[in-house]
Design goal:
The chain is α+β, with helices and mostly antiparallel strands. It is built from two helices and seven strands. The strands form two sheets. A four-stranded antiparallel sheet has the order 1-2-7-6, with no helix packed on it. Strands 3-4-5 form a three-stranded antiparallel sheet, with no helix packed on it. The longest helix has 22 residues, at 8-29.
């Protein structure tokens, strides 16, 4: 049995090489990454009377997205298009993702789907999902 000395530096170098290989392989796919599927980042918070969803969709117009509710599932679909007067070949690097996306969220059972509202400002989509009255927290008074 041979005893080998452990070296944290060599371990880090091995990980570094693996990461480089991973990025090199994905760069070879080129067009898959440049125009691949993407998904907007979403924050979802619960308030006393509603749920509020914020989705980052920079560079899109409200006409490029669609929101609908079916079977208690909120679905946001859209497409960010690659629009540029310059030819694709003139770019040295394209890192932003373009293409179609779909985000779906299962809603809690007690929301008012008919009263869901949405707004879009400064590249952020805001969807407000009101809670039904019976699901809102109620304070109960203690009697003597």
């Amino acid at each position: 049995m041979t005893i080998t000395r452990w070296s944290p530096t060599s371990e880090l170098m091995r990980m570094h090489e693996q990461l480089n290989r991973l990025f090199d392989e994905s760069a070879d796919r080129g067009s898959d990454l440049q125009y691949g599927s993407w998904s907007p980042a979403v924050d979802l918070r619960e308030e006393d009377s509603q749920y509020v969803l914020h989705a980052d969709m920079p560079g899109m117009s409200k006409d490029d997205m669609d929101i609908h509710v079916e079977n208690n599932v909120l679905t946001i679909t859209g497409e960010r298009k690659f629009e540029s007067e310059a030819k694709k070949d003139n770019y040295h690097r394209i890192e932003r993702a373009y293409g179609k996306f779909v985000r779906s969220f299962t809603l809690p059972p007690r929301v008012m789907a008919d009263a869901i509202s949405a707004g879009y400002q400064d590249g952020v989509l805001e969807v407000v999902i009101p809670k039904a009255e019976e699901s809102k927290p109620k304070k109960i008074a203690i009697k003597n």
